[in-house]
Amino acid sequence: MSDPQQVETVEADVVVIGAGVAGLSAATRLVEAGHDVVVLEARERVGGRLWTDTIDGAMLELGGQWVSPDQDALLETLETLGLETFSRYRDGDSVYVDESGERIRFTGEQLPVAEATVAEMERLTVLLDELVAEIGADAPWAHPKARELDTVSFSRWLEQQSDDEVARRHISLFIGEAMLTKPAHAFSALQAVLMAASAGSFSNLVDSEFILDKRVVGGLQMVPLTLAANLGDRVRTGTPVRRLEHSDAGVVVTSDRVVVRARRAIVAMPPNLFGRIDYQPPLPRRQHQLHQHLSLGLVIKVHAVYETPFWRADGLSGTAFSPYRLVHEAYDNTNHEDARGTLVGFVSDEHADGVFALPAEERKARILADLAEYYGPEAANPVVYYESDWGTEEWTRGAYGASYDLGGLSRYGADQRTPVGPIHWACSDFAGLGFQHVDGGIRSGWAAAADVAAALASTSAGVGS
């Protein structure tokens, strides 16, 4: 830490801890309402789990990147900030590799599996869509079926619904490896319903045409970068918060470079990091337990850049999928108006564990072998190769977001945003719609800002009466 004698002390109405989209969206709303706000960020950059960087001359979106048509909060923010989007390339055939290793080209969203399996996947999709419509995203813990669905793993629940192992494997992968980045035995059926409800339906979640619709010109990190630029010197980076003292009078937040005295605080970080702050007095037992039942998943986001998008000349869209390969899905991720071609692929949960145990060059060779199986031998020789590993990122420690262990969502979900005195919480991990997505982070930030503004107004009214 810095020399305490050199640490600056400032006063504000609100201190926001974390400069991801949740924290910056909250700060923006509060400033617009006329409040004095300070934002403290541990990293030397803003954006949290959004990070666009240049690696070996290639612009890569190392974190979140896609925009889907139902993400109203994100779309509103993009319009307000004047940021442009472009459509993901998707013309041509997709590729599927089956259990025997056969490579199959296909079009549309329906995977080329046996007709009986197709029918069973459609039946399971309808069943999940019905549960989503019945339970919703805002308060799944309040539904009469919440405990029943939350105390059975998603894999076990699928076994109770279907005897078709191939159908179960595909359905579980859409939510497990692809979204929560955990194996389906590690999270509940209720958590799976929330993940599907966050996109409006399970049908939306599994439709790559929908969920991976557009990208932002310049990268999705342009959202927090622009929000932070508009906030100006209210945002302070490179200053991890170490201590948060709280009382009825407000908060005193001590970071490495500044001490902030404020009336309210918003903690806007991934919940697995909440415990890195020394709260005085300590948080209530309920909050301690809640935070301990949340964990992030694990995924390697693989970026491979080529001199040209060669797969397009072969009539391929760049979309590839297989529950039997190390890289379970991959897409054309070429940047806006870039002559070079970029592929992005994903290696999740236990598969990531396995290859992280290998030397880096062997891991790269195995991953590129899968890309070559999808796209042909040219895919084995990118000019730029990079692996986003958020599990080792000091101020994230996982991907893409936090989810509860079995029974945790129904047990603690109702209290996850409950303020502790003057302390409020904001993160995409606590969102309903947009859960684990940028859209949810923005919604969570807006909700926290509204709660804080109401609390400040109530306090001011009390003082004046």
Estimate what percentage of residues fall within beta strands. Answer: 15-25%
CATH-derived topology of the largest domain: FAD/NAD(P)-binding domain
Rounded to the nearest angstrom, the radius of gyration is 23 Å
Largest sheet: 8 strands, mixed
CATH class of the largest domain: Alpha Beta
The termini sit apart by 43 Å
Binding site for FAD: 41-42
Protein name: Putrescine oxidase
Domain Amine oxidase: 21-452
InterPro entries: Amino_oxidase, FAD/NAD-bd_sf, Flavin_amine_oxidase, Flavin_MAO
What does this structure look like?
InterPro entries: Amino_oxidase, FAD/NAD-bd_sf, Flavin_amine_oxidase, Flavin_MAO. GO terms for molecular function: oxidoreductase activity. Keywords: Oxidoreductase. Belongs to the flavin monoamine oxidase family. This is Putrescine oxidase. With 465 residues, the chain is an alpha/beta fold. It has three domains: 154 residues, FAD/NAD(P)-binding domain (3-Layer(bba) Sandwich); 115 residues, Polyamine Oxidase, Chain A, domain 2 (Alpha-Beta Complex); 99 residues, Guanine Nucleotide Dissociation Inhibitor, domain 1. 36% of the residues lie in helices and 24% in strands. It has 16 helices and 22 strands. Strands 1, 2, 10, 11, 12, 13, 14 and 22 form an eight-stranded mixed β-sheet that branches. Strands 8-7-17-18-19-16-20 form a seven-stranded mixed β-sheet. A three-stranded antiparallel β-sheet has the order 5-9-6, with no helix packed on it. A hairpin with a 2-residue loop joins strand 11 and strand 12. Helix 3 crosses helix 6, helix 3 crosses helix 7 and helix 5 packs antiparallel against helix 6. The longest helix is centred in the C-terminal third of the chain and has 27 residues. The protein is globular, with a radius of gyration of 23 Å. 50% of the residues are buried. The model has no long low-confidence stretch (mean pLDDT 96).
